[in-house]
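Instructor's aside before we start: the two examples that follow are unrelated to each other. I chose them only because their records fit on one page, so don't look for a connection. First example below.
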Amino acid sequence: MMARQTGIFYLTCTLIIVTSGLFFGFDCVYLAQHVTPAIPAIGGALFIFVMATLFRTSFSDPGVIPRASLDEAAELERQMEVPNAGSPGTYRPPPRTKEVVIKGQVVKLKYCFTCKLFRPPRASHCSLCDNCVDRFDHHCPWVGNCVGKRNYRYFYLFILSLSVHCIYIFACVLTNLILRAQQDNFLTAMKESPASVIEAIVCFFSVWSIVGLAGFHSYLVASELTTNEDIKGSFTARRGADSFNPYSKGSIFKNCSQVLCGPVPPSLLDRRGYVVPDSSQAHHTGNMGTNTAPDLPPPAVVTTADEMLPAGENVKKREMISYQTPDGTINNKLPPLNGTSSPPTCGGRKNHIWDMTLNQLNYMGRSNNHAAIHGTNPGSVYPQPYRHSDYLSGTSVLPAVKGNKSTMSRGCSTDF
């Protein structure tokens, strides 16, 4: 069981295998002849143990806590809902923590909104693996997996054996170069065995971090602490005068025995089960919020008979322009363009009136009225300048036609 980011894990395997291969191919041959044949045997045993603990750490379940099902999450939310006494019928947000007492020490259980459960003591949610891990220590990119309750001992044995293996190779490389230098000089020895120089450089820069990490985790094992607890200072003196580690067995020997020799709890994952899609996350799955719901058809537009143009023209009322005459009546029709009386053809696209501003619509209506009064082409005759104050006041801006009082335009308004 590995995380999604496995690039550094492959780098770890490459460094160990290549360095060990150079050691067995060049240094072990010379040392087995001039020192003892036990050197390659010890190196081979260390290499096998290092790779075995590495793979066991990387491909084992660190203690993942399964997420709550829909029924479990609903029941938990129902139990957390507490009516607000001040306002009947309303509910306050559910509490995010619970408190339990372990050996007289109060420990808070935090609610995980991703897994929909209260995490057990010492558990935490890994952002890289996106799972809650029991006795979460840390996420190690070098092994490509979280380090938790079920694989911590293998991780500790891995870094401990790797530090010994690194020191062993570095010591053997120096021995090889010193024995070769006794015959001539040190530069000649490096020319005769260039692989030893590469091994020495890799081991020299790696041994400090590996040995330091092994020493730090030795302290954690002896104290029965995790990296997460040590960094946060969960049981330090600043938490309170009575703060102590309730998980410690009381002695270094018992703590080491508990971590390294205690029983490994069974995995809570059903590796033979089938993945059932969660209907509650049908619309949002993953970290990116991908919508997996099927595309629904667009909502039907209910159109009544009075919203359609007369004479069976397939144009809705909200696509038309409402003209108000001086007598107060409103005419719903499409304005003619270039003196034509038929509505323009949109060719299945959105009506062109949607792209016009209010000034353009008023200008078009006034131009048509100007053409009807004077018998001119609105495309070639410009009416008098538009005044917005006249439009707001509702007064006519065109001269009246004798004998006809209903041809005056008071502007236009949109009804979308």
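Example two begins here.
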Amino acid sequence: MNLSCSLWQDNSPSVKHFAFAKFSEVPEQCSLLFTLILLMFSASLTGNALIALAIRTNPALHTPMYFFLANLSLLEIGYTCSVIPKMLQSLVSEARGISREGCATQMFFFTFFGISECCLLAAMAFDRYVAICSPLHYARRMSRGVCAQLAVVSWGVGCMVGLGQTSYIFSLNFCGPCEIDHFFCDLPPILALACGDTSHNEAAVFVAAILCISSPFFLIVASYGRVLAAILIMPSPEGRQKALSTCSSHLLVVTLFYGSGSVTYLRPKASHSPGIDKLLALFYTVLTSTLNPIIYSLRNKEVKAALQRTLGKKKVLTRG
């Protein structure tokens, strides 16, 4: 155990502070990575905030699909803000430490926003299923109340899983070393630092991943399976094209989010590699949240038009 770790423990039987591992021993590499992550973080915050604002201020977008998209943008903002600021600090500062309480807080919010997003993506897929497969009943089945309930359930499940997983993991003792071989307080690298047998905790993390990642994913696959079947029997090519265009953005986001998340949390423990885990972490915490606003704005004419109107209003206000 290094000197800083032993000082942080204050003769306690359990580590009270952790330290994130250095990204690189080469300062130039850290500076380059800092710049890239900061640019993507800024783009993610700006893009998601603009989409949420555009949907909020444009009555034409007050529909179930865009209600869920606004929620998704808010989740993405929380998701990145729970991880990236501390990551950026660790890149350019020697102050790479984080208290046990701070680490638990970061883990809770990261898990909370991540699981909520898994559930919300399933709700969005269900919305597309009802819109395409049962258009005559869409207004009744996807009423404002139903949409609000689906959103509340998504956020609620994320909160419960975040609280449960965080409290379960941080009930363990951490005897050292205290260096986290990762960019943030993710579940697997924190479990690796715990004392004694952690097999039950690892099983709990795996079961939670199965329930909260795989279950919504299967709902998404089932919904889009029915959607695809309905699209294939549409007599009009224009109708098929319109139906596909409304689903393509969501499918691309689902592929990016679930692809990286599944590889991270559903792989066997023996196949985990710190280097690969860090690369995947950068992908699903930074890159995915940066790409989502671009995907939705470029592939959706209504969102693009709403963003242009919102930005136009801002320019007028600025000039005034």
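The beta strands are 17-20, 97-99, 179-180.
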